[in-house]
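sry for the spam today, last one i promise. struct tokens for design, 320 residues
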């Protein structure tokens, strides 16, 4: 008996909330923009098969894949007594990763694989972890592979919607209201950028006025979200920490931002550390025009794509 889990793409930062805000994405055409993991019982050990549009970009040795490592990590975390009680102490797992998100895209590719894998493992082993504990496990593993724990992709990918990172005892994050009328146009040009490299472009210290602006814009955006004041939210959806230092490293980004504004898009920003960009409007015709422009001018390599999206309110779920 197998089960399959889908974990959506996500935008870290959402421009205004560096490392503190994230949102899950759902293309309005109904396509699934995210990774899928299928799990089934096996005689022993861990095995992994790799399929999907971006499988060719993954390590050839399955043991080097983060989904394989997720399984080892999860099984190590489970107690022998728990596995014996389930009757699965000697049982292994066979995993299949359908890799549908490009690596280094700014769409939470690694988070999607990690979340799908750990969710699938938790389901397969009769849910030993509750929602909060599983989220913390996801963050812990994501931190192992990225060097530090950041939930702004993991949390929305798992829980859906727009998530504000709290990181207080017992609560990693909380959902904040989203604007149902907004269309999020996202475009991935086809190139990959290292998150570590893009973080290095940012300064180690900021001027006090910049940090005040960061706090002001983020708090105003959260306030506007609860008040459902879309005009205020758009006016403060500004990235003062990362974009000024990253924009030049993303080919065509500055030109796209100007062109999208000319088309009537309300604001444009960098998804995660790029190169994917997001652009917002409350008009579907404008969103489609922006998608067309991006497909013609921003997508530069084979594999690039653009989607008109809403936020994915469901998050990770079984699709078998």
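last one done:
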């Amino acid at each position: 008996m197998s089960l399959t889990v889908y974990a959506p793409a996500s935008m870290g930062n959402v421009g205004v909330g560096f490392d503190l805000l994230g949102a899950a994405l759902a293309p309005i055409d109904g396509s699934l923009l995210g990774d899928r993991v299928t799990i089934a019982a096996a005689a022993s050990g861990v095995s992994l098969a790799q399929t999907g549009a971006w499988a060719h970009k993954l390590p050839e040795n399955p043991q080097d894949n983060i989904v394989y490592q997720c399984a080892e990590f999860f099984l190590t975390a489970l107690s022998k007594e728990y596995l014996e009680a389930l009757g699965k102490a000697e049982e292994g797992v066979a995993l299949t990763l359908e890799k549908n998100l490009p690596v280094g895209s700014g769409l939470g590719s690694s988070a999607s694989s990690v979340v799908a894998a750990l969710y699938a493992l938790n389901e397969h082993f009769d849910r030993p972890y509750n929602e909060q504990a599983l989220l913390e496990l996801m963050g812990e593993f994501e931190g192992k592979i990225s060097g530090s724990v950041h939930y702004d992709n993991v949390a929305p990918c798992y829980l859906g919607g727009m998530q504000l990172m709290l990181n207080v005892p017992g609560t990693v994050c909380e959902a904040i209201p989203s604007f149902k009328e907004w269309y999020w146009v996202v475009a991935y040009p086809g190139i990959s950028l290292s998150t570590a490299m893009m973080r290095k472009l940012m300064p180690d210290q900021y001027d006090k006025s910049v940090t005040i602006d960061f706090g002001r814009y983020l708090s105003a955006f959260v306030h506007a979200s609860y008040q459902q004041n879309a005009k205020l939210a758009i006016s403060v959806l500004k990235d003062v920490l990362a974009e000024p230092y990253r924009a030049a490293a993303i080919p065509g980004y500055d030109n796209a931002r100007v062109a999208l504004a000319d088309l009537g898009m309300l604001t444009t920003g960098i998804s995660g550390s790029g190169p994917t960009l997001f652009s917002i409007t409350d008009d579907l015709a404008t969103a489609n025009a922006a998608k067309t422009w991006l497909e013609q001018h921003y997508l530069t390599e084979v594999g690039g794509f653009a989607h008109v999206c809403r936020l994915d309110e469901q998050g990770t779920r079984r699709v078998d």
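DSSP finds eleven helices and 13 strands in the chain. ok im logging off now
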